């Protein structure tokens, strides 16, 4: 039976992103190692975030190229520290080293390839690995959806296995907590809502839900497999007879693989007019990934998300320290 979509309600544009930026502003800027900001787009992203008080950028890369990029962007970088590095690979390594040394508490991608930066992040001896697999989360403000929508993983893990998906889910839940969502509703997406061996993602979705039941995933409410319409439309979920605290009201969408996530996020951005911010989580510090296609608003929002993650982690450490006193 076909389901005619309900008329799309329009919610206040930018409302959640405005609230996000308001929450992130006002504190001390977070020292941020910016790896290889050698074109005007990458450099402008760091300077824009600095000018609104979110980060204190440390520009890492070839000095001549950074100065040329600043001139092209019309940006004054005199207030910011510059750490020379001869090329993009050295820039990535030096930026990661600044984080390991405690001189930076955030890492930001400049004009180098994402793989090049993440290679240094994942280095076993000199990187920023934790016990978790790193993953990317998009935070989306969709005009036709009444709440923030987190989508993962659309940028890092190409075809994650079950244990990697466990980390992807937990990373997204932890990020949602930092955003003020106390008990995020997590929809594990597939092509349909029934478990079938013909579609492996349905089996993995069911396994992830059972892992949550057993305490292997904490802090959120999981359900799956769910098709996309059942995850975000109460009417579609009711039509299918799905009784669930997640169906129709999801806060987090966990996609089967990177291709599905990438297409979903870009469809929401370019067809539904969504604002999107993105951050890589699961490393010692959040990693801000920006691209040439990002608007200034998106770049600043991505920095704001990362800043809130740092502050949430620091608040936890302070609380733990107080308990020990």
Q: Could you explain the architecture of this structure?
A:
The chain is α/β, with parallel strands linked by helices. The chain has a domain at 133-282: Isopropylmalate Dehydrogenase (3-Layer(aba) Sandwich), CATH 3.40.718. The chain has 11 helices and 11 strands. Strands 3-2-1-4-11-10-5-6-9-7-8 form an 11-stranded mixed sheet, with helices on both faces. Helix 2 (40-51) crosses helix 3. It is globular. The N and C termini lie far apart (62 Å).
- Helix proportion range: 40-55%
The CATH superfamily of the domain at 133-282 turns out to be Isopropylmalate Dehydrogenase
> What do we call the CATH topology of the domain at 133-282?
Isopropylmalate Dehydrogenase
Shape: globular
Search tags:
single chain, 325 residues, 11 strands, globular, 42% helix, 11-stranded mixed beta sheet, Isopropylmalate Dehydrogenase, alpha/beta, 11 helices
